[in-house]
């Protein structure tokens, strides 16, 4: 309480003049911001005990601030014209998987990035080397990319590991991709060497013709095996032996 | 702004397609594919250069860090937008409820104070009107 009492400061009056002569509304008492302060004056009449006189009517009456344009009670969605976005995201079902957002990306992108060390967080935390020129590789550098022919082990074939939704087409895409790998290599190489094309095709044709024949033979053998070991044939054989 | 993103998107798609083709070649490698593979590697370097050139155009784009967490978990980033909208709406409703209740409380308090201190409340109303909007 005592801390809140502020003595009036007679800035332009002489020390000999008393505040009683001037009055509380004289220029000697500059009007400052009254918000949050106690409107009182202290009378220092000689011969009498100092007393506190309440000049204001209410204690701690503050000036009301101007009304803000946006408050917490404003409908922010309509204010920022986000109603269309709200309907799009909240009324329609948004799919959980990342592959729904990026359907054309190859590989399995729905797995967490931490598993195969491909997370964006690690890229931010450990920034890779930047601001260096990326030049084309020389012949000697490219010699490091000479590969042995043959298929990769299945554990390293990440390009064929699509998301679960695409599993139905996986088998078809696998076969087509294997064939397309050869086609890709040949199409581009024939653009450079047109004479090599008919030989490669000749080599391919017998293989492709043999494949369906082999599969038919295998199916026939499997059917024969099933017939031999089926319960009907076993029953008839047993009946024949008994008789 | 959208054009810059489209150009970047196209460039990234080319890069991804090139990488995918390289993956197919490598998964079942044939000797005649070596030259093609070398070409693909050179194409990859040139495409990375093109993408690097576009960096200056999108320097001012700000992305919230939480989106990266969603992507790292294999979740759709649209879910982040959806979650933000839901949180904003919930907070908006919460604060509106507080504001409405405080307004009601003020009205009720004025009514009760007027009953108990009628003279003082008259002085208070006059003071408020003199100062500005109540």
Automatic annotation (TrEMBL), chain A:
Compositional bias per record (Polar residues), positions renumbered to this chain: 32-43
Q: Which domain of life is it from?
A: Eukaryota
Q: Where is this region: Disordered?
A: 1-43, 160-243
Q: Which GO terms describe its cellular component?
A: mediator complex
InterPro entries named in the record: Mediator_Med19_met
Where is the protein localized? Nucleus
- Main subcellular localisation: nucleus
* Protein name as catalogued: Mediator of RNA polymerase II transcription subunit 19
Q: Where is the composition biased (Basic residues)?
A: 164-173, 215-229
Q: Which GO terms describe its molecular function?
A: transcription coregulator activity
Any GO BP: positive regulation of transcription by RNA polymerase II
Subunit organization: Component of the Mediator complex.
Q: Which family does it belong to?
A: Belongs to the Mediator complex subunit 19 family.
* Key words of the record: Activator, Nucleus, Transcription, Transcription regulation
* Its job: Component of the Mediator complex, a coactivator involved in the regulated transcription of nearly all RNA polymerase II-dependent genes. Mediator functions as a bridge to convey information from gene-specific regulatory proteins to the basal RNA polymerase II transcription machinery. Mediator is recruited to promoters by direct interactions with regulatory proteins and serves as a scaffold for the assembly of a functional preinitiation complex with RNA polymerase II and the general transcription factors.
UniProtKB/TrEMBL annotation, chain B:
Q: Which residues cross the membrane?
A: none
Q: Where in the cell is it found?
A: Nucleus
Q: Name one Pfam family in it.
A: Med10
Q: Which residues form a coiled coil?
A: none
Keyword Secreted assigned to the entry: answer is no
Task: Kindly list the biological process annotations in GO that this record carries.
Answer: regulation of transcription by RNA polymerase II
Broad class of the protein's primary localization: nucleus
Which keywords accompany this UniProt record?
Answer: Activator, Nucleus, Transcription, Transcription regulation
> Where does the source fall among the domains of life?
Eukaryota
What are its GO cellular component terms? mediator complex
The molecular function GO annotations come to: transcription coregulator activity
Keyword Cell membrane in annotation: no
- Give the record's subunit note: Component of the Mediator complex.
Cited function: Component of the Mediator complex, a coactivator involved in the regulated transcription of nearly all RNA polymerase II-dependent genes. Mediator functions as a bridge to convey information from gene-specific regulatory proteins to the basal RNA polymerase II transcription machinery. Mediator is recruited to promoters by direct interactions with regulatory proteins and serves as a scaffold for the assembly of a functional preinitiation complex with RNA polymerase II and the general transcription factors.
Q: Which family does it belong to?
A: Belongs to the Mediator complex subunit 10 family.
Entry protein name: Mediator of RNA polymerase II transcription subunit 10
């Amino acid at each position: 309480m005592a801390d809140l009492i502020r003595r009036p400061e007679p800035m332009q009056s002489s020390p000999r003049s008393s505040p009683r002569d001037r009055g509380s509304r004289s220029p000697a008492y500059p009007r400052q911001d009254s918000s949050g302060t106690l409107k009182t004056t202290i009378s220092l009449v000689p011969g009498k005990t100092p007393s506190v006189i309440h000049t204001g009517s209410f204690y701690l009456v503050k000036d009301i601030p101007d009304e803000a344009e946006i408050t917490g009670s404003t409908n922010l969605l309509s204010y920022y014209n986000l109603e269309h976005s709200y309907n799009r995201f909240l009324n329609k079902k948004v799919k959980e998987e990342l592959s729904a957002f990026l359907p054309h990306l190859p590989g399995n992108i729905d797995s967490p990035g931490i598993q195969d060390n491909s997370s964006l967080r690690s890229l931010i935390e450990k920034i890779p080397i930047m601001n260096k020129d990326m030049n084309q590789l020389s012949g000697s550098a490219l010699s490091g990319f000479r590969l042995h022919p043959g298929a990769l082990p299945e554990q390293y074939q990440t390009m064929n590991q699509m998301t679960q939704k695409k599993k139905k087409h996986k088998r078809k895409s696998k076969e087509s991709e294997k064939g397309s790998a050869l086609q890709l290599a040949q199409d581009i190489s024939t653009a450079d060497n047109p004479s090599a094309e008919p030989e490669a095709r000749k080599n391919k044709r017998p293989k492709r013709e043999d494949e369906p024949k082999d599969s038919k033979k295998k199916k026939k053998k499997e059917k024969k095996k099933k017939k031999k070991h089926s319960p009907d044939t076993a029953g008839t054989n047993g009946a024949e032996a008994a008789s | 702004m959208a054009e810059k993103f489209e150009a970047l998107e196209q460039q990234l798609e080319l890069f991804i397609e090139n990488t995918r083709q390289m993956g197919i070649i490598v998964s079942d490698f044939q000797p005649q594919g070596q030259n093609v593979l070398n070409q693909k590697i050179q194409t990859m370097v040139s495409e990375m250069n093109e993408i690097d050139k576009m960096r200056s155009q999108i320097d001012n784009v700000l992305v919230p860090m939480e989106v990266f967490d969603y992507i790292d978990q294999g979740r759709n980033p649209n879910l982040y937008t959806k979650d933000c909208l839901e949180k904003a709406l919930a907070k908006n409703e919460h604060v509106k409820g507080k504001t409405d209740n405080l307004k009601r409380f003020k009205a009720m308090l004025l009514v009760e104070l007027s009953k108990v201190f009628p003279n003082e409340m008259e002085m208070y109303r006059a003071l408020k009107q003199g100062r500005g909007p109540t």
